[in-house]
User: Fold these one by one.
Assistant:
Number 1:
Amino acid sequence: MNRNLRNRVMAGLLLTAALLLSVGIFVIRGARQFVSSSTWVEHTHDVITALEHVYATVKDVEADQRGFLLTGRVELEQEYLANLPAARTAAANVARLVADNPEQAARATQLQDLVEKRLQASLETYTTYKTSGFDQARSMVAAGAGIDLMGRIRELHKTMAAQERDLLSRRVTLSETNARTLELSTVAGLGVGLILFWLVARRLLVEVRERRRAEALTAGANAELTKSVHELALREDHTRQLSRYAGMLQSCRSVGEAIDVSRQAIDRLLPDCGSAVYLIRASQDLAESIGTWGRPAASTAALFPPQDCWALRRGQPFESEDVGHGVRCAHVSAIDDASAWSICIPLVAHGEILGLANFSCGRAPAASQRDVMVAAVEQLSLALSNLRLQDSLRTQSIRDPLTGLYNRRYLEESLTRELARCDRVGKALSVLMIDLDHFKRFNDTHGHDGGDALLTHAGRLLQAHCRAEDIACRYGGEEFTMILPEVDAERARARAEQIRGAVETLDVYHRREKLGAVTASIGVATFPESSREAAELLRRADAALYNAKQQGRNRIVSD
Ligand SMILES: Nc1nc2c(ncn2[C@@H]2O[C@H](COP(=O)(O)OP(=O)(O)OP(=O)(O)O)[C@@H](O)[C@H]2O)c(=O)[nH]1
């Protein structure tokens, strides 16, 4: 709760408390006033009753006396004598009750006086009756002194009673007014108090609601933050793994190695997805799978024309939200009609599309995982491109560009290696030194290009006559060498004969003009008979070739 609001709530509570306190005090005071006014009303009633009692008692005294005088009954006499002090007491009681009211007090004194006089007059009559008899007593009554006194008592009684009734009326009104005021102020005070309390409570409820909302927002923000931190940690881990992957890829020496490294790295980075990597063949007609791993949620063909893939067609990633029902590449299909997410990402390096990578998962992965896919494919593209470049450079360094055969440097490296291997396994190795006969004439007749065309055809012919383990090389100019591992002298001569015969049948055209008949002379040397040394073996084969030339060409001479 902020400070301002806390102050306002405190002020509201204090005000409510003060108001309720005031209402309480007011109610107590009002109640006291009400009790007081009620007491006064009661008092007035008492006064009126006492006045009535005085008048009634005096009347009783008068009646009893008259009854006694007329009948002489003893019980009336006793009643009369008993009522005399009662009348005095009643008059004294009135005087006591109205002592607080000077006006009425004066009247009460007067009333007491009159009562006393009336009682004295009555007693005189009684005494006369007792001493002088009825007639004397009757004469005294007839004189009218008692009647006169009684009239004055009645008048005074009336005045006092009227005064008391007036007081009673005013006191009742005051009491009612007090009661109403008390009621109204209690209701108003409680009402205002309740309103104030409601306002404060409402403000507090709003504050509690706002606090709860703020807490919920804070909790949400915390959850977001935790998620972000988690994602950040995940991304960091991905970056670290990708960096390690990139480093490993750079050290790969073959596509196979690169695929093995990718299998390990991508399996760890994308444990819930399946992956497949394709390379487009040199002929550009087919994309061929070179590695699959993980747990694919969709199947993808091992071999397919590049146009079957949207990513290859468009040169950018293509995503299929639902392989079973949405738009998808033709080479991707659902497994058992299960829904699956799939993406094809082209392997692009230096502006060239090398192939593609396909990833499939049960459901669309998080953005961070897609980033991993794209980054991994980028690294793999670069690695494959570098390997291809290395391969091309290596090929250039060991191949003769005109004939496509291995060059002399590669020949010398290979011969040494193959000789050692054949020596190890106790096998023979033969070398054929092949030279086209009168090659100069082709150059002279058809130009250097014509000579080149013939060299190219000769190269293809030799390549066609190679087994997997044979190595065909251009030794220099129009001279070729074939290394035949595990081939003895006799079989080498037979192979040489095949080649010589094939050269004879060569039909080479240059600029639509047929080149003349082509023949070749071949010298054969065999390990270990001719030599155990590579250089010596070559020299012996070359010497045999020289002999073949000397003997008339288009023939074979073995060392
Ligand atoms: N077109 C072309 N000619 C080449 C190439 N290298 C060497 N030559 C030529 O090949 C010819 C070799 O001629 P020679 O050594 O006299 O041998 P030849 O004419 O084949 O005669 P013999 O070997 O004795 O049968 C030369 O004229 C070279 O200029 C090449 O790469 N292309």
Note: The mean pLDDT is 91.
Number 2:
Amino acid sequence: MTYEIPKKVQTLGEDIQRSELKYHDREVLVSKEFTFDSAHHLHCYEGKCKSLHGHTYKLQVVMRGKVDDRGISIDFVDIKQIAKERIIDRLDHRYLNEVLPPMNTTAENMVVWMYEQLREALRSEGLFPAVRLEEVRLWETPTSYAAVTARLMGDDPA
Ligand SMILES: Nc1nc2c(c(=O)[nH]1)N=C([C@H](O)[C@H](O)COP(=O)(O)OP(=O)(O)OP(=O)(O)O)CN2
Ligand SMILES: [Zn+2]
């Protein structure tokens, strides 16, 4: 069954297109969250995390960009596609020590690697510099996270 948009609502859409009340060119942060489950263990670490164990990780990706005529700075769908391809699909239900480049799989190391992956994806997809990565946050447990920002990564725009 198809639903026809009422004439009144169509007109409202046209009004919005014509309206002066637009926030385009204003920079806005846009964020999306993901979860994935992985196993890992730490090296050079005395404590329970030296043994093989798992986490439900939570990843938050924050991007920033100028709002366009539609009122969108970066489509949530694009953030999802990039994060899935570059991170989630590679790490979900995997043994991190095996699938990540050689690193101790701490939240700190992983979040920097994730930032680099996402920054590279924005460039290769042609979204940068209109869209920039602002912050990446990785929760290892509900109470522990590591994060990097554009400033910490030396990527602040002049
Ligand atoms: N700075 C860091 N400290 C620790 C890391 C890390 O990546 N960076 N990692 C670990 C372990 O991987 C461990 O699994 C997580 O430790 P912890 O937060 O203590 O885990 P809990 O399940 O005990 O968390 P609660 O939320 O307090 O129950 C260790 N340290
Ligand atoms: Zn752990």
Note: The radius of gyration is 20 Å.
